[in-house]
Amino acid sequence: PVERSLVLVKPDGVRRALIGEIIRRIEAKGIRVVALDFRALPRELVEEHYAEHEGKPFFEPLVSFMTSGPVVSMIIEGHRCIEAFRLLAGATDPVKAAPGTIRGDLATDIGTTVVQNLVHGSDSPVSAEREIKLFFPQES
Ligand code: CMP
C-alpha cells in the first residue's frame, strides 16, 4: 500500500549539516518528500510526540535534546515507506545500526544520556497518522 510517514532530522543531524545527505538517501530509495518544515519545536509538541516514553529515565534528556536546536520535519510518501524508512535509518542504537544505514554510516553518538541518532521515523501506520496530525495539522 502507499503509505505516509513522519520523518524528523533531529538537532544533531541539523548541527552536523546532514539534512541534504539524509533527504538524498530518502529520495534515492524512491520515496517522495511531500511536506517539509524547519523550525525549533515547542517543548509541548515534543512531549506529546514522545508521550509513550513518559516516565522512562531518558524522557527528560530526550525532550531537552529534541528542543536543543531546530529540527527538519517531513512527511514522506511511498509504497511501504514506513518500513522502508526504518530500514534506511537502521537500529536505534548507532552502535548496532548496520553500515549502509543512515545511523550506521553517520551517527557518531555512543554512550551519552540520550541516543542522538540523527533521525526519527514513525514505527507503524497508526503512529504515522498520529504524528503527522501533530506536526502537520493542515495536512491531515
Ligand atoms: P526515536 O526513534 O526518535 O524514538 C525515541 C527516541 O528516544 C529514540 O529515537 C532515541 O533518540 C531515544 N532513546 C530510545 N531509547 C533510549 C534509551 N534507552 N536511552 C536513551 N535514549 C533513548
Give helix and strand order, one letter per element, not per position: EHHEHHEHHEH
Net shape: globular
CATH topology: Alpha-Beta Plaits
Q: Please, what is the CATH homologous superfamily? A: Nucleoside diphosphate kinase-like domain
End-to-end distance: 18 Å
CATH class: Alpha Beta
Give me the Rg, rounded: 14 Å
- Mean pLDDT across all residues, rounded? 96
Read across the widest sheet, the strand sequence of neighbours is 2-3-1-4
Which structural category do the helix and sheet elements fall into? Answer: alpha+beta
State the major sheet.
4 strands, antiparallel
Number of domains: 1
Q: Approximately how much helix is present in the residues?
A: 25-40%
Strand content: 15-25%
Low-confidence stretches: none
CATH architecture label name: 2-Layer Sandwich
Number of DSSP E strands: 4
Cofactor: Mg(2+)
Domain Nucleoside diphosphate kinase-like: 2-140
Function: Major role in the synthesis of nucleoside triphosphates other than ATP. The ATP gamma phosphate is transferred to the NDP beta phosphate via a ping-pong mechanism, using a phosphorylated active-site intermediate.
GO biological process, one term: GTP biosynthetic process
